[in-house]
Please model this.
Amino acid sequence: MKSYDVVVVGAGHAGCESAFSAARLGGEVLLLTMNLDSIAYLACNPSIGGTAKGHLVCEIDALGGLMGIIADKTAIQIRMLNSAKGAAVFSLRAQADKIKYHNTMKQTLENIENITIKQAEVTEIFTTSIHRGKQCYVAISRDNETTNYPKITGVKLSTGEIINCKSVVIATGTYLNSVILKGDRRENAGPAGFASSQHLAKSLTNLGIELRRFKTGTPPRVNSRTINFDKTIEQPGDDGIQTFSFVSKRPTKNKVLCHLTYTNHKTHEIIRNNVHLSPSYKDRSKDDPRGIGARYCPSIEDKIMRFPDRERHQLFLEPESLSTNEIYVQGLSTSLPPDIQQSIVHSIDGMENAQIMRDAYAIEYNCINSLQLTPSLEYKGCDGLFFAGQINGTSGYEEAAAQGLIAGINASLYSSNKDRFTLSRTNSYIGVLIDDLVTVGTEEPYRMFSSRAEHRLYLRQDNADTRLTPIGREIGLVDDNRWRIFNKKQRVLDNLRDSLTQRQKLEITQGKITKLDADINNTILTEIKYGGYLKREQSKIAEAKRCESTAIPQNIDYTQIKGLRKESQQKLAQIQPQNIGQAGRISGVTPADINVLLIYLKKNPV
Model:
């Protein structure tokens, strides 16, 4: 039987990036999915990017990942959000052809030699912790420290087949014990009706992993032929703007229009009169806990009930693909019964006669407590077991793909007995995302926002390659072609910085010189306009790096450090921060506690 370096469980956006990055680093990878048709499936919104999410996609690309390349190849409309605001919050968002996106990603992964793709369900994780019913812990190395954690040995499939491997990445998305809800109807299924994973959760619980219950939802899809677009507002794309990938050769062509419409008094009345039929507003038993939904992506019934003073809410009509008439009604997520959904849709301007092709639904699923993970996305209780994506409590394709890239890198490094890799809050949104998850945790589906990044003026889309491509090259993800493109761009930037006259700089700020590539133009413009602020930002980054450079041993007994408050002792023991910077971000740990810890470390150097 063939053995693998890395087994990736799940082939959504996290799983695809995990498999790709692990394989690019030389590992033999097995990518397992319960349905090949669900690979990189855009189960909810047919879009990539958005506020802060666009930053993540550009960073994935800069490191050598796939999402940006596939998004550019399959985009049917692209826009730059927040373009009237400062450069720090510019965010790319593309409508992707969801059918083409799936097919392109699937074909890309199929043609990578050291990736094997198999349709199968994983039911159990095997580790060295159980051998003939007895505990059998093995001392191994974790970043040059000796530990007594169990380690991964393989996985078991629903067929009974056992796959031997060195590491596992769990990227099950919203499929773990998932239930679809439409009014009174409950169905054990995953997104878009794909089968749910009903057996793996028990194995994770047996490993000591804390499971939670989260919820997300999706709106109805309607037939474009039955919409009166004359009663809606056109939302065109932007021409000549930056692409997601720094290796894309030409700007994305806008092939479709999106449209804007609104809910109204009649819509709200229908919802208020029937809100008691929504599963979110019904009593639940203790054995059937209600999933916690995303605060920043509420259902339409939540919007109406939480904000009774709002007379209307925006709805965006977004084409799902060039090869279908399905329109995604962004903003109309609901779990109300299908007949009520029909009444709601027909109350909206332009959709009086709209035909629903797919009903909206809510989906509840299991995820883990992300505080149980290290910054490398490895489970603290088992070496070689990594988690990525919505299983970690996040929402969104982009957050999932970003985690998948890092988990795949580290699974491969672990399999090669190399130290794990992490990013910092000072160099990437990906670093912010992961640090938030493993240091602060989340009690609801986590969504990335630019406000979460302390250094967002520096962490922009246009300079993601400047920040991260050298790191990707050092790891081994960035190939020769990307490296040549990167170095050529850096030479252009350096020459511009040296040669631009004051008059040319003024013309750039006035928009009179825009013949440069969009990302280069944005970089130069930002450096000219915000030079003083960027210098100040660099000083703050330098200070943050000093804190990050003060390492904390992982074998500290915090209860023995005099002067630490009991709450801080408990929090520090739970999180096991890797450095002073991370320790200072733990909720409940005060500056006074950090001073105590610094004194202790000075007396007891690493």
